[in-house]
């Protein structure tokens, strides 16, 4: 991961640069959303379409050029790429949500309609935010190993065939659960104490909104500035399917369907030298062990004024 670019002092920063994933904007709905947002932002805003692999580099360039606000136009993966480039700078993150679920934007109170989101960006109310990191890679909502990265692989295939729809995303979950066969053998280390697990999924959450959306416990842990780490029991594919159904109806049971660990730092030791890791819907191959840590006050995000006044967008007490 690239080192953060040294930022100019805040008074020298000006303007808004909107970075759009080239994949976003190809369909008429997303193109119309971007057009509406740009009209609200006006002449102070500049739009850049870039390929997915070039998003972080484009955001770093904006920081180096003294741009005041860099807007991520896309889903949580696009926002994560821009956020990684802003770490340690005084350049603010704006969000124009164009993804399937938009958990980060919704958790910040940012409207999903493009004009409403653009008005929030134009108002410019900033709030500092904490982020999680695994082996140096930042994530906004969650990072996981096991069945969820496999779901993302299947989701890409389903999206190519049926389009980016929430029902398609749910179908990819069920399909992957039915096919999944190999649980992980891991050791989770916290403050020098290790525990062994045989599990299909380890899921480290940093979004209180996402947990509450699915009726899961652990939001208080996140508000305390820590990770909520979910470890699923090894119950085979029937157990996974049963868990998926209970998750859909918000009936997951602590101690039966998952174990919950609350920590601000942990290490996951793996049997294999490399592991596929999902961070906010993007896949990364990482060498073990996996080191999870909190990055305090990573940067500032632009949020609605009422969010700015009442709570931090990461859920931590203001």
Q: Can you describe this structure?
A:
By secondary structure, this protein is α+β, with helices and mostly antiparallel strands. The chain has eleven helices and 16 strands. The longest helix is centred in the middle third of the chain and has 16 residues, at 147-162. Keywords: Kinase, Transferase.
Kindly, what is the distance between the CA atoms of the first and last residues, rounded to a whole number of angstroms? 30 Å
Shape: globular
Structural class: alpha+beta
Q: H/E element string?
A: EHEHEHEHHEEEHHEEEHHEHEEEEEH
Count of helices? 11
The order of strands across the largest sheet is 6-5-16-13-8-9
Major β-sheet annotation? 6 strands, antiparallel
Number of strands: 16
Mean pLDDT: 84
How large, in whole angstroms, is the Cα Rg? 19 Å
- How much strand content do the residues show? 25-35%
* Helix coverage percent: 25-40%
The stretches of 5 or more residues where confidence is low (pLDDT under 50) are 1-11
Domain DAGKc: 11-138
GO molecular function: kinase activity
Protein name: Diacylglycerol kinase
Keywords: Kinase, Transferase
Detail the topology: elements first, then pairings.
Blueprint: E1 14-21, H1 28-41, E2 45-50, H2 55-64, E3 67-74, H3 76-86, E4 92-97, H4 103-107, H5 114-123, E5 126-134, E6 137-139, E7 142-146, H6 147-162, H7 166-179, E8 184-190, E9 193-199, E10 201-205, H8 208-213, H9 219-223, E11 227-231, H10 236-248, E12 259-263, E13 265-270, E14 274-279, E15 282-287, E16 290-302, H11 305-310
Parallel strand pairs: 1-2, 1-3, 3-4
Antiparallel strand pairs: 5-6, 5-16, 7-10, 7-14, 8-9, 8-13, 10-11, 11-12, 13-16, 14-15
